[in-house]
Amino acid sequence: MNLEHILVIGGTGKTGRRVVEQIKKRGIEPRIGSRQASPCFDWDNKDTWVNALNGVERMYVTYYPDLAVPGAKEAIESLTYLAKELGVKKMVLLSGKGETEAEVCENIVSNSGIDYSIIRASWFNQNWSESFFLDPILSGEVALPMADVLIPFVDANDIAEVAVRVLLDDAYNGEIIEVTGPELITFRDIVKIIEKTSKRRLNFYDIKLEQYIDGMKKMQIPNDVVWLIEYLFSHVLTNPKNQLVVNDVERVLGRKAKSFLEYAQETAKTGVWN
Ligand SMILES: NC(=O)c1ccc[n+]([C@@H]2O[C@H](COP(=O)([O-])OP(=O)(O)OC[C@H]3O[C@@H](n4cnc5c(N)ncnc54)[C@H](OP(=O)(O)O)[C@@H]3O)[C@@H](O)[C@H]2O)c1
Fold it and tell me: Lower CB count within 10 Å: N or C terminus of the chain?
């Protein structure tokens, strides 16, 4: 496949970066969709989109910050329309499990006439090492609501491996692939696992969602971020559709999905939690 024919939008992010690495291992140099790349891709500047998509045959799309936020639907609609015009043959969209708003975006892609696969992911393990749960771990004080809700946390490496497989293999065209980890796990369990693997003392506090939201506001976290976190906790985490283990990682990759313990053991060795 030609160097310029695969685009990874969000190619510097948690799954996109791993998708890029794995495509490169196959001897293909993908184009990275990022504000830092050349050509640049910026969701907030449509003028950048044509150059980024020009000549692309297949693309992996991760929207930032989330397909549920206002404006996401319109952005996915415009991008999909442009992709069709420019002759993109296949789109793989990263979506969120249990997110009604994300399903609207999935439908835009699946009704576009472009070949597609949808990857519906549950919450990523890497949120604890590369995203919003890292700071509380580093501070040693982890205060979270819904301490005992069961969540099938999934590893970003597994998502990326599935994404590369379905991006390059047309046998998965038209499929919705649900990626979860191999077990349901709670925040309380997770903090214990990180405490053990990182050999650090972590204090865990089971708090109310209102307290968590108030805390974010006091820290002057931007309103749109607070809105998104509240939405994710109150709608996605508690959605029964999200509290199920699905074996699609194993179906696509022919091996078991990575457990949270395996992720934590590997991550502790990197020193990111020290
Ligand atoms: N995190 C989870 O647990 C989870 C679970 C299920 C689904 N998802 C879905 O996964 C998607 C990505 O979420 P994530 O948390 O994993 O984030 P992420 O991919 O780690 O986000 C960072 C990426 O977004 C890019 N980006 C940020 N603002 C941009 C802009 N204005 N224009 C172009 N690129 C921009 C960054 O590129 P540059 O900074 O280099 O420009 C970077 O590549 C979301 O749609 C989310 O709904 C996430």
Answer: C
Domain range for 84 is: 3-121+155-180+244-258
Output the CA 201–ligand 1 centroid distance in Å. Answer: 30
Q: What crossing angle do the helices spanning 223-231 and 209-218 adopt, rounded to 10°?
A: 160
Q: Which residues pair with 92 in a beta bridge?
A: 60, 117
* pLDDT value for 41: 98
Query: CA 145 to CA 234: how far, in whole Å?
Result: 10
Ligand 1 atom closest to Cα of residue 156: 16
Specify whether the CB–CB gap between 123 and 151 falls below 8 A: yes
Q: What is the 3-state secondary structure (H, E, C) of 7-74?
A: EEECCCCCCHHHHHHHHHHCCCCCEEECCCCCCCCECCEHHHHHHHHCCCCEEEECCCCCCCCCCHHH
Give domain status of residue 230, yes or no: no
On whether the pTM is more than 0.90, the answer is yes
* The total number of structural domains that make up the chain: 1
N-terminal to C-terminal alpha carbon distance within the chain? 42
- Identify the CA nearest to 157 among candidates 27, 263, 9: 263
From the CB of residue 63, how many other CB atoms can be counted at a distance below 10 Å?
A: 23
Ligand 1 site: residues with CB under 6 angstroms? 10-16, 34-36, 41-44, 62-64, 66-67, 94, 96, 121, 123-124, 127, 131
- Flag residues of the chain having pLDDT under 70: 1-4
Contact between residue 26 and residue 70 where contact means Cβ atoms under 8 Å apart: no
